[in-house]
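Section 3.1: Structural characterization of target chains.
Under the original work plan, the team committed to producing a structural model for every single-chain target entering the pipeline before any wet-lab resources were allocated. The record below documents one such target. The sequence was received from the expression subgroup and is listed exactly as submitted; it comprises 330 residues.
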Amino acid sequence: MDQSTLHEFLDATFGAADLSELTKISGGQSNPTYFVTHGDRRMVLRKQPDGPILKGAHAIDREYRVMNALGAQGVPVPKTILFHEDAETLGTPLYLMERLDGRVFEDCSLPDMTPDERRAIYLGMADAMAKMHSVVPSEAGLGDYGPPGNYFERQVRRWSKQLFASTGEPIPDLEFLANWLTENQPEDDGELAVAHGDFRLGNLMFHPTEPRVIAILDWELSTLGHPMADLGFCSMTWHSAPEEYGGILGLDWEALGIPTKEEFAARYFETARTSARLSDFHVIFSLFRFAVIFVGIRDRVAQGTATASNAAEMAPLARAFAKRAKDLVG
């Protein structure tokens, strides 16, 4: 990112001030993200990555739109500031949102916490998901945010297509899962919500001292969808090991104070606006989809366009999550 060009853009937008901070945030495999301090404005900037982009990927305009809409409905999201569509400024479109102070946990075992604190964090995560799913899309101005109905049919088709479009080494377990998911889809029950698409502990910011989510982050994969897609995705934590993107499989959950997957889901259902229930299909689909995302990261590593510095370490996880999903199939 060209700092002088960004400074000129911010001066023209907000008035002349010092650009005292421009720091790329570590982590993340998708849209480059930066802390920006311009005068007394503390902001976060998100932009598309450089290089070739798949059609429909890295749609930061959608991220901005959904956060803007859900914030008005009381869902915990950062306050949006502006969206700039012109790619000439910094090479890609970009948007700015407020910078919040809070806690983000990448390790789902939550080290250095007491059992009661861990339990409260997990239940706070369930409450935030239920709050997000309680929004009626049409009432929030998001009735056209995605095609309604047949969510899993469309998603299985989409991610299978992306899998088979990969130019890297094939992963037989994933090819098996693509076929299994196609043949074992549940009937569409008409449930519709704003589906985040990547709802997990690492994409949530908690209050500095309270077990309360103050911001749901990273909306790149969001669309209109089935609420069980998010619950199934979040449930992957119980089906992946600590070395597999920080899961908790194999840990003593009771001693740690972490609720079981069933307890977590029960907390969610206390306030969620849905009559659906979680099944193995939802978790298997989520493991498959996440594995295909890692295939994409692997391919970007090979092309030299991966965003995060640890992308090469993440790429092998495609096989690990494919195996977890196949194990769950039996």
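The CA atoms of residues 197 and 314 lie 19 Å apart.
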